[in-house]
Amino acid sequence: MDGLDLLKKDWKKREGNIPQLSYDEIYKMLLKRSSSIVKWIFVISILEFLFWALITIFWADHEYWAEMERIHLKEFTVVTYVINYGITFFFIYCFYKNYRRISSTDSVAKLIKNILRTRKTVKYYIGYILISTALITLIYTYFFMNYHATNTVVEDVEKYSFTPLQWLMFAGIMLGGLAVFLGIIWLFYRVIYGILLRRLNKNYKELKKLEV
Amino acid sequence: MDKELEHQFVKNLEKHQNIAHKICRIYTNDQDSHNDLFQEITIQLWKAYPKFRGEAKFSTWMYRVALNTAITLYRKKKRSIKTQDFDTVDFKIKAEEYDDETEQQLKVMYSAIQELNDIEKALVFLYLEDKNYRDISETLGITEVNARVKMNRVKTKLKNILNP
After folding, report:
1. Who among B18, B48, B150 is closest to A105 (CB)?
2. Taking 80 as the threshold, does the pLDDT of residue A155 lie above it?
């Protein structure tokens, strides 16, 4: 007998041996929480948003605003915040829409495609965070130094000014620090979303192979 | 209203729970993972149930949602046990029903299936469940021709494992 036919026969035979769950046992399962991939992507994006929002609130106390006022960056900071929150809310809305769009009644191919679309949104979001963080840090550094250079009165200018080499070192350290910081953020996202999406990507490639 | 829906759903699932158990059998290899996947399937079915409303048979609909959960939505946890001992799982083969050689063949077949990828497992599962190629292609979102070609490849693969 052919191997698969034998298997089919055995498969049918075992149908009777399957342990059965009771009505109550199944009912209890409805109350448990889902651990599905899509749900976690959505939850993580919300947590992330809260994390950054809390950091800003914690950071931006009265003193901070006073300092911003002093170096004439208050307006700029407020505008950056507004734009930043606007864009972040837009992304959360996208995540939510993706989450709603994903329906377990679609075909496997369509379902995976929708989940991978969520992944693309995640990628854009990470890209946005990295670029905006870099830009804002650079702009602030520039303004801060500019302010100090023009408004700090020192008696012995020679003592406080940088030689070209020192400038170069300073810029190098600044950029290096920024790169390390951005690298950590990037790694963090790679790890979290990578874990969630690795197997899915594999299955998608498998389905893609079928289409060729 | 909600209570009524809940009751209806649990009744349906209780009646057709074999489908989910069989999918868990194909996709997991220990009892803990089996229970995990079964639970996730139940939750996904319940989440999708308001959209169901009897446009198809409950069982047909359930095949699709349950398989989708196993292939895409379920977060597989890494378990330390990679190979499995059939006697410890409910794969248990009743020795008296088959001769030794057949029993050996079946053991090899079942472990061969465990080596397949998620999509191939789905194909084998639907084949074992006597689904036709139209059902298979609709569930996976590929064409019927592709389903047929892929199924034949999987069959050959399994045959080769069995008769090297």
Report:
1. B48
2. no
